[in-house]
Amino acid sequence: MPKYEIAIYSKQVREKIENGEHHARFTDDWADFHYFEISALNEDGARALIKERHPSDQGFVIDSVVEMKESNFEKCFVLGPGICPVSNS
Fold first, then answer.
1. Does the global pTM surpass 0.85?
2. CA angle, 26 as apex, 22 and 30 as ends, to 5°?
3. What does the alpha-carbon distance between residue 49 and residue 69 come to, in Å, rounded to a whole number?
4. What's 17's DSSP letter?
5. Phi then psi for 63, rounded to 5 degrees?
6. Which residue range forms the structural domain that includes residue 57?
7. Which residues 6+ apart lie within 8 Å of 27 measured at CB?
């Protein structure tokens, strides 16, 4: 199943900070991007999962959704020593 990296922030927290205030529920760091790795069948599925956890009616904004490619390191870790597809030359 593909993995997606999703960047989100809280618009409400950003607005509070701009006005010299603090959000009643969320910490100030939510004004900055938070990154999550989500496994889903497709980008729409990844967006739906993150929206369940961080809904827009609570001020959360999805900034980006990027499909993550499996690295050679991950392939080696999963396959194990001696099966790694990476060349040593």
1. no
2. 90
3. 19
4. H
5. -90, -40
6. 3-79
7. 13
